[in-house]
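stage 2 :: seqdesign
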C-alpha cells in the first residue's frame, strides 16, 4: 500500500466524515471485497454503498475494478492506502499532484522467456500446462495474475498522462516480485534488471522464491508447494537518480529517461550474464501478499495552477 499525500484536503475530509465510510475502510483493510458483500456486511443497499465507495475513490483511498462473477461481472473494492499525510497551505508551498496507473501483469507487449515458465489467472492455468513459452501468446494471457520464467525478459507499455503544463518530479513503480525456482525455494537469489525507455535504470536481487505458506491472496486451488508470494519492490526515479527500496542504484534521473514521451517502456529481465540467474515471478491482483498489479505513480507540479 502507499501513503496518500493530500494538498487538496476537501475530498479526503469529506470521505472520512462518515461512520459508514470509516467502517468500509476498516473492512477493506482486512481484505478486498465485492461491492454487494460490503453492502451485506453493513446492512445497506447496493446503491447506498456505491455512493459511499465513490467518495472514497475521489479521495484516492479506494480503487474499484470489474471482475468475472457467477453469471455477471462484479465490482471489487480494494483499499489502496495504509496511511495519510495532510499537507496544509503555507507560504511558498508548491502543490504536488499524481497520475496513478495500474498495469495488469498479463498486458505485456513483448517477451522472450525460457522454461521453467507459465501463466495463470485467478481461476486457472493459462494453456495446457507449464514450461511452454508459446502460451505467453495465448489470448487468455491478458487475464494472467501470476507469471514466471527462469531466464529472459518481459516488457510493458505504460501510458503517459502528463499534460503540457505538468512538470514531472518523481516516478514510482511498484510491483510484487520473487525468483523462480523448481516448485519453491526461499534461498534462490536472482538478479532482476529493470530497463525504462531503453535506459538500464538498475538491478534488484530477489532473495528467493517463496512457498510453503499460502500467499494472502493466492487462490486455494493453487498448489501450496509452488510459488506463493513475493516482495513488494519500489523503484523511484527523481532528480537525484534511481532508487530501489531507498538505495541508489543508478544516476538516471527523471530528467534524462525521456519521461515526456507519449508512452513509457518498462522491461524486467533476468540476463544471460547475471551473477544470480534465479528466474522471475511477477504477482498481480489475486495472487501473492499484495492485491495489486504493476502500479505507476507519477508526481508532478501543475504549473498552470501556479500562474
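stage 2 :: out
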Amino acid at each position: 500500500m502507499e501513503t496518500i499525500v493530500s494538498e487538496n484536503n476537501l475530498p479526503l475530509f469529506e470521505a472520512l466524515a462518515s461512520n459508514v465510510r470509516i467502517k468500509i475502510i476498516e473492512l477493506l483493510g482486512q481484505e478486498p471485497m465485492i461491492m454487494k458483500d460490503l453492502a451485506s456486511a453493513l446492512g445497506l443497499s447496493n446503491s447506498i454503498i456505491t455512493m459511499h465507495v465513490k467518495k472514497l475513490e475521489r479521495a484516492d483511498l479506494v480503487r474499484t475494478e470489474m471482475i468475472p462473477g457467477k453469471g455477471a461481472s462484479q465490482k471489487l473494492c480494494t483499499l489502496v492506502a495504509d496511511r495519510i499525510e495532510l499537507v496544509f497551505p503555507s507560504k511558498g508551498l508548491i502543490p504536488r499532484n499524481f497520475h496513478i496507473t495500474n498495469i495488469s501483469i498479463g498486458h505485456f507487449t513483448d517477451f522472450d522467456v525460457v522454461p521453467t515458465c507459465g501463466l495463470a489467472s485467478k481461476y486457472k492455468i493459462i494453456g495446457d500446462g507449464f514450461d511452454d513459452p508459446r502460451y505467453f501468446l495465448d489470448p487468455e494471457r491478458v487475464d494472467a495474475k501470476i507469471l514466471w520464467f527462469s531466464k529472459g525478459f518481459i516488457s510493458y507499455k505504460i501510458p503517459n498522462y502528463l499534460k503540457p503544463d505538468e512538470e514531472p518530479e518523481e516516478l514510482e513503480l511498484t510491483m510484487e516480485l520473487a525468483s523462480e525456482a523448481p516448485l519453491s525455494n526461499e534461498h534462490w537469489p536472482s538478479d532482476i534488471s529493470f530497463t525504462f525507455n531503453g535506459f538500464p535504470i538498475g538491478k534488484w536481487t530477489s532473495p528467493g522464491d517463496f512457498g510453503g505458506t499460502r500467499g494472502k491472496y493466492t487462490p486455494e486451488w493453487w498448489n501450496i508447494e509452488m510459488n506463493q508470494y513475493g516482495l513488494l519492490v519500489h523503484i523511484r526515479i527523481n532528480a537525484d537518480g534511481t532508487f530501489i527500496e531507498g538505495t541508489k542504484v543508478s544516476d538516471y534521473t527523471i530528467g534524462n529517461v525521456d519521461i515526456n514521451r507519449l508512452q513509457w517502456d518498462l522491461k524486467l529481465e533476468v540476463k544471460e550474464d547475471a551473477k544470480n540467474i534465479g528466474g522471475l515471478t511477477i504477482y498481480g491482483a489475486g495472487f501473492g501478499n499484495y492485491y495489486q498489479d504493476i502500479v505507476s505513480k507519477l508526481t508532478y507540479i501543475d504549473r498552470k495552477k501556479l500562474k
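stage 3 :: structure notes
- Residues 1-7 have pLDDT under 50 and may be disordered.
- The longest strand covers residues 146-159.
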